[in-house]
Amino acid sequence: MTAMIEMKNVQKLFGPHHVLKDINLSAERGKVLVIIGPSGSGKSTLLRCMNLLEMPTEGSLTVGDIRMEFHDGNKPKRDQVLTLRRQTGMVFQSYNLFPHMTVLANVMEAQVIVLKRSIEEARKRATELLRKVGLADKANAYPSQLSGGQQQRVGIARAMAVDPKVLLFDEPTSALDPELVGEVLKVIQELAAEGMTMVIVTHEMKFASQVADKVIMVDEGCIIAEGTPEEIIQNPAHERVRSFLSRIT
Ligand code: ADP
Ligand code: MG
Fold first, then answer.
1. ipTM of the complex
2. What are phi and psi of 28, to 5 degrees?
């Protein structure tokens, strides 16, 4: 298996606060890596270090064919950061759509600004992606006119629009009313079936069991367990994993 994302000995400190402690992981091409763990354990920070929304303090990060080393105080070059970040698409808990733009414009924006695609080309790709997430008929609506589930599906289409090598999801359904969770998870599952490489932070354990090729549990900034969904979620051997799962399910 070849890794799409690899982290070696990654540490992250916010001032004196040691938030990620010696993280070693890999996300394989065409596979789904699910990250679970209690609130405040460092899951979002870990995900944000994968696309350099946060800079690791120490360690190395590889995304696709770009490898970067971090040492306290060194600032990576901006163009390197942007090149790495462009290999990834991020889907946020709170959707983060541009409220003043239509759904179609939201999905076109980065294609035109970042990839310098023509308007026609960007519109064609955006229309395809909106069809894929079941929202072709909402192209001209504004985000405020959509349900949370629809907005998050736009968020996924937008993340896909720049043809990322890997999609990163930070609790994509935790802001949603329970009845809207399923439609978003279904879209993610379809992408997984198509072989999209994904890293997903989620508390939806049933979904995680179905979609994950590998599960990692983070606690207090450390990876405390790693394995298949059967090993980590269905038959957890580790006491801290068991107690976490019993608290959330
Ligand atoms: P999770 O996503 O698992 O809930 P986070 O990665 O958001 O955890 O946070 C892990 C820890 O890092 C928390 O203690 C949080 O307060 C701290 N933290 C996160 N982001 C920052 C930041 N930008 N500055 C300072 N501390 C932060
Ligand atoms: Mg978080």
1. 0.98
2. -85, 150
